[in-house]
Write a structure and sequence with these properties.
Length: 628
């Protein structure tokens, strides 16, 4: 019976006491209010908590999280334990304890006089405690917010917890944040609560009016809460249970403290891990912008692992798409660096498909690589075409292909292609040097066999007649030297006339040659513009001049250019024509042989007993003689 009576008596603590609570909380001049106040009054215990945001990141709402953590734990295990929070009061309606972590303040009045007050756990608070600065100066001191202990500090968290304080009727308990004490000194607060009545709201209104009347340039978030203890619970069995309650309070406080630290640490670990994940992913994006795909893959892989640890499957799936893209690009880059260009091209195409699922983040890089590879293949095509022309001893056209390959390779910084083109040109020039050496030897042998100035004049006349005016001048000059040695003035005068005539003709030829070259340059420009018909007309104009000047090689080169002009356009027609010509070839041979058989004997041979030469047109200007 005594036990039931005691339990009923404990359950009537709140009913047999009178605690009146009121508070104000405003954002001040800030956009958001990061101060929080909350309280819970149970049958046996009550808890009052005030929190001031401990950082400059309002979205994190650190004060709110701290208060919610403490109050939820208190509701599960209410007791008079030593408690850690921002600033809090725990009471059994008979005694109180207050705990501080940071610089949110507690102030208790009894009969209008300060009974208890907290000390700021900051560097500024230490300076005031050591009397290096006054308490009034602390409100504006630069170290006032340099906290030594705060909620969420982890293993180093060491809040201040007061001793148990016995309550008396008429006590006033105040909790307030720095938005208040930075603008109101302790004397002003003492004036308000020295005249306080039994209702807290009137005192709070007086505090707020006094605060706003200061009109500070910047008013931080401010919160002020007051608990008026109008009647304290009187426990007749207090002495009997004091030891038991004390032990339970200490145990509960310890559990609450551990739970708060664990919850806060777990929360901070997740926040930190998510920040690390986003930072790693952002780093990967930066490396992609810098085209550093190796480092981008490392950062993206780290981000994917963190997303997996967080259990964020959606984020992990998205990051894995980026990781697949980066792996594909790295594979293509490796093949590109190893000069496996065809395989690299295929790998880049695969990477381009992957890029679709990663916000097309690497499209520009991949397109650039594919464009470079297309130019590489063009360089190789030009070199192969030049090799084919070199085998046919079409030296000029082969040189054009090699030079074009070198130009293209140089313009795109393709070192291997440029090197291959240079090697091809070296082979070409070696072949030309051999040919020129052979021709020089032949000319020297011919010059040695010619004797006398008369023969030189004849050769000069011949060269003149063939339009080789520079050659004619050479022969005439050689003959002039011969006749100068013989002191034949008459022949020298004749040669002077011939030299003047050759000089005149050479200048005329040079002008016409320049005109022809001008037509060729115009034709090239038209060819580049795609106007093949006009280009062809210009080439034909140049050809006519070369024919007129008896420059058969130049005229032949122009024919070759015209053939090349139509090569691409006529490629398919040419293949069809070759197929048709191939099917008609036997009939053409028979027809030609029958036409020539009129001059054969009965055996199909000519008078010498041999078959007559037969020329077979294959394609274009090329002919085939089966007896050669």
């Amino acid at each position: 019976m005594e036990i039931k009576y005691a339990e009923r008596e404990e359950g009537m603590r709140k009913q047999n006491s009178k605690f009146l609570t009121a508070f104000i909380s405003e954002a001040g001049s800030e956009l958001e209010n990061n101060d929080y106040f909350a309280f819970v009054e149970l049958d046996k215990y009550a808890c009052y908590v005030i929190g001031d945001g401990l950082n400059d990141y309002p979205d994190e709402e650190s004060a709110l999280l701290a208060i919610e953590t403490v109050l939820l734990a208190f509701q599960e295990h209410p007791s008079m334990k030593k408690k850690a929070s921002v600033t809090m009061i725990v009471t059994n309606y008979e005694h109180i304890r207050y705990a501080c972590a940071g610089n949110a303040r507690f102030r208790m009045y009894r009969n209008g006089i300060v009974k208890e007050q907290s000390l700021d756990m900051s560097l500024g608070g230490d300076l005031a405690k050591e009397e290096k600065i006054s308490k009034d100066a602390l409100a504006a001191h630069e170290e006032r917010n340099n906290l030594q202990t705060w909620m969420g500090q982890g293993e180093r968290f060491q809040p201040f917890v007061s001793k148990k304080i016995k309550l008396e009727d008429g006590d006033i308990l105040n909790l307030y944040t720095r938005g208040v004490w930075e603008n109101l000194d302790e004397g002003e607060l003492d004036d308000v609560f020295s005249e306080a009545k039994e209702e807290p709201q009137e005192s709070l209104n007086n505090v707020e009016d006094m605060l706003l009347s200061k009109q500070p340039k910047r008013l931080e978030n401010y919160t002020f809460a007051s608990v008026f203890v109008n009647k304290v619970f009187l426990d007749p069995n207090r002495k009997k249970r004091i030891k038991k309650m004390t032990a339970m309070a200490i145990a509960a406080l310890t559990l609450l403290l551990i739970a708060s630290i664990v919850l806060w640490t777990f929360y901070r670990q997740r926040v930190k891990r998510r920040e690390e994940m986003e930072e790693a992913f952002a780093n990967a994006m930066d490396y992609i912008k810098d085209n550093n795909y190796i480092r981008a893959k490392e950062e993206c892989k780290a981000a994917a692992e963190l997303a997996k640890k967080l259990g964020d499957k959606e984020r992990e799936a998205k990051i894995l798409e980026y990781l697949k893209l980066l792996e594909a690009v790295n594979k293509a880059d490796e093949e590109y660096g190893g000069q496996n260009y065809e395989r690299a091209q295929e790998s880049y195409k695969i990477a381009k498909e992957r890029s679709r699922y990663a916000d097309n983040v690497s499209d520009a890089y991949i397109d650039k690589k594919l464009e470079e590879l297309a130019h590489f293949f063009s360089v190789f095509d030009q070199i192969r075409l030049g090799d084919a022309l070199l085998e046919r001893q079409a030296y000029t056209r082969a040189e054009e292909k090699y030079l074009e390959a070198r130009r293209l390779a140089t313009s795109i910084y393709f070192e291997k292609g440029r090197k291959d083109a240079m090697e091809a040109l070296s082979r070409l020039y070696e072949e030309l040097a051999k040919e020129e050496e052979k021709e020089d030897t032949q000319r020297k042998e011919a010059a040695d066999t010619e004797a006398g100035a008369a023969q030189l004049i004849a050769m000069g006349d011949k060269a003149f007649g063939e339009g080789d005016y520079e050659g004619a001048k050479v022969y005439y000059t050689m003959a002039m030297e011969k006749y100068r040695e013989l002191e034949d003035e008459e022949k020298m005068a004749l040669l002077e006339t011939k030299l003047n005539s050759s000089e005149k003709k050479a200048k005329e030829k040079e002008e016409k040659m320049a005109q022809a070259e001008g037509y060729i340059e115009e034709a090239k420009k038209l060819e580049e513009e795609g106007d093949y018909e006009k280009a062809k007309k210009k080439y034909l104009q140049a050809k006519e001049i070369y024919k007129e000047l008896q420059e058969e090689d130049k005229a032949s080169q122009v024919d070759n250019r015209i053939d090349m002009l139509h090569a691409e356009k006529e490629e398919k027609e040419k293949e069809q024509e070759q197929e048709q010509e191939g099917s008609q070839l036997p009939g053409q041979i028979q027809s030609q042989m029958q036409g020539q058989g009129q001059g054969l004997n009965g055996t199909g041979q000519n008078g010498n007993g041999q078959l007559p030469p037969v020329q077979i047109t294959v394609s274009g200007n090329a002919t085939f003689n089966p007896h050669e």
